Amino acid sequence: MRTSYIQASVGLYSNYFLLGMVNIILSSHMAYLTEQWDTDRTGVSYIIAAIGFGKLLSYSSFGILSDKIGRKPLLIFASIAMAVFAIGIPLTTNYDAALIFAILAGFGNAAMDAGSYPALVEMFKKKAGSANVMVKAFMAVGAILLPFIILFLNENELFYGYAFYLLAIIYVINLLILIWSSFPKQGEVSEAFEVDGELETNSQQITPNFWAEGIALIVIGFTSTALFTVAQIWLPSYGEQVIGLAVTDSVKLLSYYSMGSLLSVLILAFVLNRLIRPVTVLIIYPILTALTVMLILTLKDPSLMVVGSFLLGFSTAGILQLAITIMTELFWRKKGTVTGLVATASSVAAVALPIATGLIAKRGDIAHIFIFDGFVAVIGIVAACIVRYRYMSLVK
Length: 396
Fold this sequence. Notes:
The chain is mostly helical.
């Protein structure tokens, strides 16, 4: 990577560090927000779903804009949109206004992805895969720190909205960093894929079947997002209502979850394609998720809940990024199109899962949500087995 791009990379990873906090900040403040908006936990879950809805609505458009006007304008818009969200949520007492702020955050998230992933590939070139995996690491660090910020505010009896305002301030600072940063020309081809003037996969031509491994990878795009969405939204509520943890201890579960995520992506960055293939990870991780869900459902112990939260974070981290990586490797002629398909499936999960699990919570026990989560993990395992079987037959 050129030294001229260091500042830009700092801005990109800082955005994802903050996004890690944004992803859990609403679920971490359910008790306050239900009172503020005169709703229930299901109502707050709908606000969370609105973020995914905003992303789903705008992802394709921002992907096109990223190639037409460049990465930088989208990243600037993303910082502005997320700052407005962070300021608006604690200030508004109107549920409809909160929905609008959430949709705006979804637009910001989509713009961030559409600008960041191509920019990272263009900046890091031969290390593009590791650069994309590290996005998840920075998100995990942000998610680890936020519960401690919330705990500090609670212990000092300070307004919960200060956590949101802190994010807004950092977003504004990051906006200035991005404005003054240099970016590669959009559309630069990664040196990692350049072979004699033509793009090839694994140094050989392969003929994958979109209706087999392609659809399976799209399914994994959905299930991978579904699994970490359920955990990020409902772990605190499960810990409080089912395990009997105090509110502050239940929020800490998200920190343990994020610690697992961080460790996972750091390990993946080192071992992928050295000790283990990405397609194998796609199978192992959802199996671990399913086993962990069984653990926390059957052994309702506070100490085991901490371990379970850590394992859920470990086993759901990086799967979406690996699915996108494999998809672009197999269907390299249409990398942008197939990436959009996996990302769209991910966005559908981000919209559907908060709504579906909110309805489950409204009609039954919180534990039923994690039973549902286990079934989603099984679907991911089946899809991953299809991908691995097809992949190994294509590249051997």
